[in-house]
């Protein structure tokens, strides 16, 4: 099992994402993933990543002002040009970081209509065509309504239906077990069912989104073993908030029989 640090959640003791690259390296990580690095130039982020000598697995789509709760416009009719601009900007960062996966965030919608679903799929079709030429994989992720109310995509069935219709290796499912538990539960069978469509996995304990071995609903020792037995051998993103110092909280990895 290979673990990568999510720099948007981990190492909160650092003042910026740039410092988190170095802290991830110091903690023993070989790879990271991150949200879009708002406020930092492509050169700043690339230099931080290269100085740390880390591999960048994935990056989130540029979404707008996250402090205002803006998490993308992929599903919003009339915002197609903004989506394309954000996608192109994100691709530039991904290429500079040599990241081969982009999480295409769907956005928030107050009252979803068939038009929103049509727009979402149309924009994904556009993205897949562009990403194919760049050898980058797009990821869509159902997000639970407790963590992000009004997020457009919170249904695994609909996500898989879209992936099937688009039918491209450049569009896969981001499976965050944290969200899976709160949306659908039945983790064992859902991992087995969803595995053919998965492009990336993330984990965090439920409900507080802390380390996998903290008190909560999920037995991650079992879940990780099940993932491996099911044939998943790619990176697992640690998208959790450490209770204390991030590095100190990594003892669960050795306790579960893994290493960085």
UniProtKB/TrEMBL annotation:
Stored Pfam families: AP_endonuc_2
Signal sequence interval, chain numbering: none
UniProt-listed Enzyme Commission number(s): 5.3.1.22
Reaction(s) catalysed by this chain's protein: 3-hydroxypyruvate = 2-hydroxy-3-oxopropanoate
SUPFAM superfamilies: Xylose isomerase-like (SSF51658)
Annotated ranges, domain Xylose isomerase-like TIM barrel: 22-255
One GO BP annotation of this record: glyoxylate metabolic process
A molecular function (GO) term: hydroxypyruvate isomerase activity
Family according to the record: Belongs to the hyi family.
Protein name per UniProt: Putative hydroxypyruvate isomerase
UniProt source species: Bombyx mori (Silk moth)
């Amino acid at each position: 099992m290979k673990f990568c640090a999510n720099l948007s959640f981990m190492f909160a003791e650092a003042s910026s994402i740039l410092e988190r690259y170095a802290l991830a390296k110091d903690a023993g990580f070989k790879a990271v993933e991150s949200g879009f690095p708002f406020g930092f130039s492509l050169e700043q982020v690339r230099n931080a990543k290269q100085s740390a000598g880390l591999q960048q697995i994935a990056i989130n789509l540029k979404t707008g002002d996250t402090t205002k709760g803006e998490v993308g416009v992929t599903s919003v009719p009339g915002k197609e040009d903004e989506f394309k601009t954000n996608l192109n900007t994100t691709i530039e960062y991904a290429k500079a970081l040599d990241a081969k996966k982009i999480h295409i965030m769907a956005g928030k919608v107050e009252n979803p209509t068939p038009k929103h679903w049509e727009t979402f799929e149309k924009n994904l079709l556009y993205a897949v065509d562009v990403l194919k030429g760049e050898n980058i994989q797009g990821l869509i992720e159902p997000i639970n309504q407790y963590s992000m109310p009004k997020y457009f995509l919170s249904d695994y069935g609909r996500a898989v239906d879209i992936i099937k219709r688009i039918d491209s290796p450049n569009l896969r499912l981001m499976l965050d077990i944290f969200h899976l538990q709160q949306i659908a539960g039945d983790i064992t069978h859902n991992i087995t069912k969803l595995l053919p469509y998965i492009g990336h996995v993330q984990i965090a304990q439920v409900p507080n989104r802390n380390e996998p071995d903290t008190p909560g609903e999920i037995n991650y020792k079992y879940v990780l073993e099940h993932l491996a037995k099911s044939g998943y051998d790619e990176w697992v993103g640690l998208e959790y908030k450490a209770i204390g110092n991030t590095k100190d909280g990594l003892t669960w990895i050795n306790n579960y029989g893994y290493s960085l």
